[in-house]
Amino acid sequence: MKYRSVLVLCPALATSLAACVGLQEGEGDYDIGAAEQDVLIDNALTSNALTSNALTSNALTSNALTSNALTSNALTSNALTSNALRDPLARQLLRYVVSCALAAGAHFDINVDGVVYGFDGELGLHKKWGDSGGSCDNACKAWVSACVLSRINYLGIATPISMRGNRGELSSDSAERIAYPTREGAYYGNIFASSPIYYACVSPENTSIERVCGSSLDDCVLKVVGTCRDACDKPQSDGSYPNCRDHARDSYGKFPSGTISYSGSVTIFLK
Hints:
The chain has 271 residues and is of the alpha+beta class. The chain has ten helices and eleven strands. The protein has one domain. The protein has helices at 13-20, 47-51, 59-67, 72-77, 79-84, 88-101, 138-149, 174-179, 210-213, 228-231; strands at 5-6, 40-41, 107-112, 115-120, 161-164, 182-190, 197-202, 223-227, 244-245, 261-262, 266-270. It has a five-stranded mixed sheet with strand order 5-11-6-7-8. Helix 9 (210-213) links the parallel strand 7 and strand 8. It is globular and about 55 Å long.
């Protein structure tokens, strides 16, 4: 049974609001608990860490990240990525990238100005990126981006989620589907592009995705293109939407000319 219930592991109640809401610089530098890594992953990625980090906001640095292995040696031996990781927001984003790309049990440490930070794999959507000489190709970029984008949390509070998609690593059984029946929406794009691309679509039965966008879609860090019924292929047996696009179908059921499809699409379900 492969649960991808996603929780922010916060300190005791007395300090939980300070730790989980209004996350500040350095928020990403915490240990989410290796003992529970097999069933729990963290979904408190902040909007600032996605949009303002030094690792992917610069095209040259982003290219250096994806063109080289996702290992401590590769990251620290390259001046661009090494310097970028001095940024706490970059380290926060890297945690999610590593968690999405590498498999459970994979781990490496990075020394930044005398402080050691650990990074753990979890889902294994592109395990080869962590091999010596590895890199992140277009398929890797699509799946890792979708996984990272689905883990944004507007408030940073604990929110259990089920992550599903057209990958064996994202399979779900009947117990998980019963426990997490409410489809939220799908996430896709390319966070590594020279001009990063962040997309989402809303499940047809919903009008908002408050976990990610807050109370209004207008100010969402992601571009919400419409309903997943209008933006993606028909849902699979697990309810997830494959091949979502950067534009929704028009009133005739057609996609506009030049519409781009993303094979890496992750659908989130809630309790």
